[in-house]
Design brief:
By secondary structure, this protein is an alpha/beta fold. The chain is about 30% helix and about 25% strand.
Length: about 160
Amino acid sequence: MSTPLAPTPVQPGAEILDRILANRGCLIALEDVDSETLIAQLRQLVRRSGQAVYLWHPSAGLGNLREEHAVMAGSQRLGLVLRYIQQSNHFGVYFLKDVPTPMAGPDAALVRQLARTATGHIRRIVLLDAPSNLVDGFNDVIVRMSCQVKAAQRPRLRDGRWLL
């Protein structure tokens, strides 16, 4: 009798945020993620820690995750948000959800420029629910990060020796 395998659990938001901050790349694509659950976890974490974490959605605009209903006026257009990120002089993690495809040429050029720019502060742009054709277009500057928890390897006894 075969039983279906349960999907591997997704890491809590704090671990994912730590991995994003520890990453050297400025442009990150999260794969295998339930974005709604992750945003809810990050919202709770950011309220306690006070970190500058932002969420952009085309219909709502750019907002700080600490203040759920506070949205930057006129920030529904991706190009305006990317220029805002470029001009920002402080720490920030920017989650971009449902980025429109195909991305306009000036917006794509600005994303590449942001991904290559080294700043004295941490600035990360994270793509959530990005289609594969969009991510493939940034292969030279993007870091793909999986959110699936790897199964722990249990040691096995073989010929009197423990193996992983």
